[in-house]
Amino acid sequence: MLGKGLRVLGHSIREQPRLFCVGVGGSILFSLLTIAGAYVVGGVVGKVVVPALDSHHAPAGTLAVAAGVIFAVSAGKVVGLFGRRLGAGAMQFRLQAAYRRRVTRRYLELPVAWHHRHATGTLLSNANSDIEAAFYPIAPLPFAVGTVVMLVTAVVSLFFTDWVLAGVGVAIFLALLGLNVVYSRRMSPRVSAAQRLRAEVSAVAHESFDGALVVKTMGRESEETQRFAAKATELRDALIQVGRLRGLLDPIIDSLPSFGTLAVLVVGGWRLRQGAVTVADVVSVAFLFTVLAFPVRAIGWVLAELPRSAVGWERVQSVLTATGDMAYGREELPDSAKPATLRFEHVEFGYGASSDQPVLHDVTFEVPAGRTVALVGPTGSGKSTIASLAARLVDPGRGSVEIDDAVVSTLTHASLAGTVALVPQVPFVFDDTVRGNVTLEREGVDDEAVWRALRVAQAESFVSALPQGLDTTLGERGTSLSGGQRQRLTLARALAGEPRLLILDDATSAVDPRVEAAILSSLRDDDATVSVLLVAYRRATIALADEVVYVEHGRVVARGTHADLLAGVPGYANLVTAYEKADAEREREKAYDEEVSA
Amino acid sequence: MTTAVTRASTWSTLRRGLAISPELRTGLAGTLGLAVLATAGRVAVPVAIQKGIDSGLRGPHGADLGVITGIVAVTAAVLLMTMVCAYLMNVRLYTVSETALAGIRTRTFRHIHDLSMLHQQSERRGSLVSRVTGDVDQMSQFLQYGGVTLLVSFGQLTITTVVMALYSWQLTLVVYAAFAPVVFIIRFFQRRLTVAYGAVRVQVGTMLAAVSESVVGAAVIRAYGVRGRTESRLDAAIEDNRSAQFTALRTSVTSFTFGEWASGLATAGVVVVGVLLGAGGDLTVGQLTAYLFLVTLFVQPVQIATEVLNEAQNALAGWHRVLDVLDQRPDVADPGDGGRDLPPGPVDVRFSQVHFAYPATVPGRGPSGTGEPEPLLGPEVLSEIDHVIAARTRVAVVGETGSGKTTFAKLLTRLMDPTRGSVLLSGVPLTEVRFSSLRRRVVMVPQDGFLFDATVADNVRFARPDLSDQELYLAFTELGLRDWVDGLPAGVHTQVGERGEALSVGERQLVALARAYVADPDLLVLDEATSAVDPATEVRLQRTLDAVTRGRTTIAIAHRLSTARAADEVLVVDRGRIVQRGPHDELVGDPESVYGRLYASWLEQTRAS
Question: What is this model's ipTM?
Answer without folding.
Answer: 0.83
